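During the reporting period, we have paired protein sequences with backbone structure tokens. One record among many follows, to show the layout:
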Amino acid sequence: MSMIKKSTASKTDGVFASRFITLKSVFDKADNKIFTQPCKNKNGQLPPCVKKVTSNGDMILSERERNEYAEGKAVYFPEDHIFEIRHNMTLDLESPHDKAVWECIKNSPLIAKSRDEKDEAGNLVIDGPKFDPHKLNKYGTAEMYVFNPVAESERKVSKAKKRHDAESYILNDPQGVDGRLNMARILGRSMSNQPDADVTDYLLTVASDNPDKIINLYTGDDIHLRLTFIDAKEKHVIYIKNKLFMYGDSIVLGATDDAVIGWMRDPRNLKILELIRKDTYPDYIMKTEG
């Protein structure tokens, strides 16, 4: 076996194309940078271009690898090499050096494959899980992401379309004022004494920030259940005990709003759901039965 001294990586520039990978900082500042050593893949393996080192920090190469390295036919990095990754740094995958750099850093938890990449649990690797006041860590681990102009444009267009669709549902609510009031109630905002313009403005604000929430409300098939749940809570037909929603003395409905709606949707609970409706809307039930 032969040994060879460590080398340093050179800077790269380029214009984004299919062969280029551009890395951007989530903070979008020119002086933003991160540092990482070669990273293992999901199987715990380092890329072939990463080599072990001696106690002196020299890479350990075979005779063939040493010759290829000397002739510029192969690129190797020591396993303890520190890569500096800068905002807007671009790697040319047709360059042996840049390709080797990418193989070394692409599995870093500090680099997201895209701005909106999610982990196996569905959390954004950059922004982290949805806000939870009980969690101290509200952000993800990644600080850089692979910038793809085409994907970025498609994402913006998709979000704009969703926002337009959400706004259309609100403005063209088939139940008009009453429908918008109900949607506001489901979202946790009681606005029965406020003009329709204020209700509409509130819903449009939600649509701008989270169009999926509005679209799911209007296209879902559980609006009546959610309104029943809200009315039952207001009339104390459904109440909270030991952090659980309860009906009667011992019927547990769930720990969250969505869990209760899931309980209501279950056909096995239809008879109890009818009892909840009778207790919540006694006047209406009497009229329909009369």
